[in-house]
Amino acid sequence: MFNSLSDSLENTFKKLRGHGKISEKNISDALREVRLSLLEADVEFSIAKDFINKVKEKALGETVMKSIKPGEQIVKIFHDELTELLGGDQVPLDLNPPARILMVGLNGAGKTTTSAKLAMRLKKEGRRPLLIACDLYRPAAIEQLGTLGAQIDVPVYKPDASETNLVKVAKDALKWAEDQNGTVLIFDTAGRQEIDEKLIEELKDLHKFLDPKETLLVADAATGQQAVSVANHFDEAVGITGIVLTKLDGDARGGAALSMRGVTGKPIKYIGEGEKLENFSEFHPERMAGRILDMGDVVSMVEQVADKIDEEKAMKSAKRMQEGKFDFNDFLDQMAMIKNLGPLDGLLGMLPGMKKLKKQLPADALNTDKFKHMEAIVLSMTPKERERPEIIKGTRRKRIAKGSGTTIIEVNRLLKQFGEMRKMMRSKGKMKQMMKQMGGMG
Ligand code: GDP
Question: Where is it mostly found (predicted)?
Answer without folding.
Answer: cytoplasm
